[in-house]
Amino acid sequence: MPKSLRNVLCIVGARPNYMKVAPIHAALAASGSFRPVLIHTGQHYDTEMNDAFFRELGLPAPDLNLEVGSGSHAVQTAEVMRRFEPIVDQTANPVVLVVGDVNSTLACALVAVKKSIPVLHVEAGLRSGDRTMPEEINRILTDQMSDMLFTTERSALDNLIREGIAAARVHFVGNVMIDSLRANLPRAVPPTQTLAVHGFAQPPAFAVATLHRPANVDDPDILRRLLESLHAIGQSLPVILPLHPRTKGRVQAAGLDHFLDGCAILPLRPASYLTMLGLMAQARLVLTDSGGIQEETTALGVPCLTLRDNTERPVTISEGTNTLVGRDPDAILTAARNILETGGKRGRIPEFWDGRASDRIVATMIQAL
Ligand code: UD1
After folding, report:
1. What is residue 1's predicted lDDT score, i.e. its pLDDT?
2. 102 CA closest ligand 1 atom index
3. Closest alpha carbon to 89 in 60, 73, 67, 112
């Protein structure tokens, strides 16, 4: 009798999960050793946060959508757990594969570990050292519960060992997000097309910015200072700003819409994956509080200013094109001017950010499971 294939429950919940799971799902399906089962928790549900990404990444429709929607952290996490548990119970021979650091990652890992089902965490060991970030709590707890921890950069192993995790459980495989980037870059949407859809002509040069972290957008004063900074940069070259739903809501609530004037700042609806790749690849400069964009700009060789005081992805600074600037308007403007004058950091591509990380994950799984 051939051994029955293990069902790998691949969890996606929020936008940054899709580009990580897409190449892993494809590699699992091609392996002949595993059956990938795609579970969407429904943490993100807007078409612009969701459907377009699936289409562009070639991800099949989820086998199941738990439709949890938005809520407080406690409610959202608890709802995912409540709805995921029966799925695990009904699945023969399961393992649970989670990626990144969103609430769905933590919730599904917690359900599985209590049932002694193997938990695999992709993008393990990243630490900002900032426990006020919900993602940092999700990272620490998910890693503690995981049987196999796949890391994107070497510093992650030191973080995990410091937290008492056995090195034998940790596998340095590289960055699956860069697997997606390399596979999809040739299909990126040209910025002219993106801007035309929003009624803007393409300027000769532009910057791209994204903002969505609660620490940056929930306090009206901090949000105003950040928008003022982008607006000031926009006097030199327009800043394209795709707006996350949270950010859009906060800008409106704080009465800051006037900054989105269509001249210095060009506001867009949330950008799809291929749209964002196209914008980043041609930007002179990217300003962001996203984790993934710090990595993508490093892979693209485009200078990035991170509008935070810390990063969980230090290799993007030590080897890549990233610089931490925080939220101080003077620091942001000085750093931006420096990049516009000098071209900024060129960086190099970190080890194993070569488009083969998913293959390494599946090869490791075949050996271990
Ligand atoms: C989540 C992740 C964050 C990730 C981000 C990417 C956690 C703790 N945070 O944050 O790590 O970087 O996704 O986008 O898991 N909303 C919509 N439509 C949607 C989803 C959300 O309008 O499809 C609105 C919600 O109503 C809420 C806000 O956006 O007002 C926040 O959404 P939520 O999923 O709670 O967290 P994110 O801020 O997106």
Report:
1. 41
2. 15
3. 112
Q: Is 314 in the pocket of ligand 1 (CB under 6 A)?
A: no
Structural domain harbouring 338: 187-342
Indicate the number of domains in the chain. Answer: 2
* Residue 49 alpha carbon to ligand 1 centre in Å: 9
Is 304 strand, coil or helix? strand
Distance (angstroms) between ligand 1 centre and the Cα of 346 equals 32
Whether residue 357 is found in the same domain as residue 294: no
- pLDDT band for position 6 (cuts 50, 70, 90): very high
Residues 16, 145: one domain? yes
pLDDT in tens, 169-208: 999 999 999 999 999 999 999 999 999 999 999 899 999 9
* Separation of alpha carbons 351 and 349, rounded Å: 7
CA of 246 to the centre of ligand 1 (A): 7
Ligand 1 site, residue 360, Cβ cutoff 6 A: no
Q: What pLDDT score was predicted for residue 200? A: 96
User: Annotated catalytic, 121?
Assistant: no
Rounded to the nearest whole angstrom, what is the distance from the C-alpha of residue 369 to the centroid of ligand 1? 33
Does one domain contain both 168 and 38? yes
Is residue 208 located within the same domain as residue 169? no
Say which of 121, 171, 212, 244 is annotated catalytic: 212
Half-sphere exposure of 37 toward its Cβ, with a 13 Å CA cutoff? 19
User: Is the distance from the beta carbon of residue 43 to the nearest atom of ligand 1 less than 6 Å?
Assistant: yes
Q: What is the pLDDT of residue 4?
A: 79
Q: Whose CA is nearest to atom 31 of ligand 1?
A: 246
Note whether 194 and 331 are same-domain residues.
Answer: yes
**293 in a domain, yes or no?**
yes
The CATH number for 132's domain is: 3.40.50.2000
Task: List pLDDT tens digits, range 111-148.
Answer: 999 999 999 999 999 999 999 999 999 999 999 999 99
Q: Where are the alpha helices (DSSP H) in the chain?
A: 15-31, 51-57, 73-90, 103-113, 134-145, 155-162, 176-184, 191-197, 214-217, 220-233, 245-253, 273-282, 291-300, 315-318, 329-342, 357-368
Question: Which amino acid, 194?
Answer: T
- Asked whether residue 197 falls in the same domain as residue 159, the answer is no
Query: Is residue 80 situated within a structural domain?
Result: yes
pLDDT at 3: 60
Residue 182 lies in a domain: no
Residue 42 pLDDT: 98
- Protein residue with its CA nearest to atom 35 in ligand 1: 70
